[in-house]
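Researcher: I need the complex structure. Ligand is 8-OXO-2'-deoxyguanosine-5'-triphosphate. Inputs:
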Amino acid sequence: MENIPTWTCVVALALRDGKGRWLMHRRPADKHHGGLWEFPGGKVETGETPRNALVREIDEELGLVIEPAACAPVGFAEETSGEGRPPIVIMLYTSVWDGSGMGALEGGEIDWFTPEEAELLAKPPLDVALAAKLFAKGVI
Ligand SMILES: Nc1nc2c([nH]c(=O)n2[C@H]2C[C@H](O)[C@@H](COP(=O)(O)OP(=O)(O)OP(=O)(O)O)O2)c(=O)[nH]1
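Model: Output:
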């Protein structure tokens, strides 16, 4: 039987402000895909639902406590060949945040972008696919 490595489930958040801009996180230079802009989030841990993991990751990464019920699924992107790494599936959720008081608590930087600006940012492959899905006409 083919030996398929266990896949990794990652959750990410497309957070929109009141002006139609979206929050992106620039990965620290020393990490996988360092220097590229992603939707903030991280890996789902054993025993967590994707939504639980999203709330935990956004608190850890941005210092922002979001309401699970205020997040809506947008879609997902998958990577079949991992170059020695397990296959990855990223599930994207969206929510709205009008306040301030967040930071890149685990390194890197964060900033807000219009869809046009976000499309032009250098991103890892799955975030390219997720951004295309998110900003496609009629999705949001
Ligand atoms: N956002 C994003 N992550 C990707 C892509 N491809 C890919 O292998 N990954 C990996 C990088 C990370 O290992 C993981 C995202 O989880 P994370 O945000 O918690 O990553 P991390 O660097 O803090 O964790 P780690 O890998 O150091 O354990 O998914 C992609 O296209 N976009």
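Model: Summary of the prediction. Helices lie at 50-62, 115-120, 125-135.
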